[in-house]
Amino acid sequence: MQVFLVTEAVLQPEPLRQLVSDPGHGAIVLFEGVARNNFGGRATAYLEYEAYPEMAEQQLALLGQQAQAQFGIGKVAIHHRVGVLQIGETAVLIAIGSAHRGAAFAAVAWLMDQIKLVVPIWKCEHWADGSQEWVGQR
Amino acid sequence: MIIRIRLFAGLREALNQHSLSLDVAEAATVGTALAQLAELYPKLPLTGLAYAINRQYVTLEATLQPNDELALIPPVSGG
User: Fold this and answer.
1) Contact status, residue A122 vs residue A56, Cβ threshold 8 Å
2) CA A120 to chain centre
3) Percent of chain A with pLDDT strictly greater than 90
4) pLDDT tens for residues B23-77?
């Protein structure tokens, strides 16, 4: 299983959990970013994600290395889904293995912020009224 | 020299294509390539972008080489 992956397949937490598990770790943090039914209160029918997949995987790997250096965590794995996602489906999955939980919690929050800044992936909101919009957060 | 341009999200939709080839001058920069694109495709929304050459973020001043892949990166919104 690829450690940093952009895929159209449904994301599965268990393979990522195995990727980051280690006998020296006292903590595994799994974060799932999930397709929500509204954006700023406006009703969403479904989401669509598009990526520059080669660069996105490279950027995810770079962020993983930076998180290890900055927070002293053990292992990191990140998978991001693209294509059409129904409400409630997982868009991004981050797994962190760490000796202690504090570093892992801090690192997962930092990683999500960074993903939304530098990883070339785009979200299209397909609104309940039938219109659509690419959402830019920078 | 020929470079390849990658388009995503709104930019891809505006031209209804994922990529295109562009003939630019030797030692052209990202900025000059963009100026050419703006002339060729006046409807292309070229503001607020980031740029990558061969998958590395660069600035408008970066110099292009033959066969480079220049990606136009609209504000990202993953996660």
Assistant:
1) no
2) 12
3) 96
4) 999 999 999 999 999 999 998 999 999 999 999 999 999 999 999 999 999 999 9
pTM of this structure = 0.96
Which residues of A fall within a CB distance of 8 Å from B68? none
Neighbours of A92 (CB within 10 A): 23
pLDDT attached to residue A137 = 56
- Flag whether residue A92 sits within 8 Å of chain B, measured between CB atoms: yes
Task: Mark out the alpha helices in chain A (DSSP H runs).
Answer: 13-20, 53-71, 101-118
Tell me the C-alpha distance between A129 and B7, whole Å.
27
User: Which of A75, A53, A68, A66 has its CA nearest to residue A120?
Assistant: A53
Report chain B residues whose CB lies below 8 A from the CB of A122: 8-9, 74, 76-78
User: What is the DSSP code string of chain B?
Assistant: -EEEEE--HHHHHHHT-SEEEEE--TT-BHHHHHHHHHHH-TTS--SS-EEEETTEEE-TTPBP-TT-EEEEEPPP---
Contact by Cβ (8 Å): A31, A109: no
Please say if the pLDDT value at position A138 is more than 50: no
- Residue B23 in tokens: 């003939």
Phi, psi for A13 (deg, rounded to 5): -70, -35
Burial classification of residue B78, based on how many CB atoms lie within 10 Å of its CB (0-12 exposed, 13-18 middle, 19 or more buried): buried
- Cα distance from A6 to chain B (closest Cα, Å)? 11
Q: Is the ipTM of this complex over 0.85?
A: yes
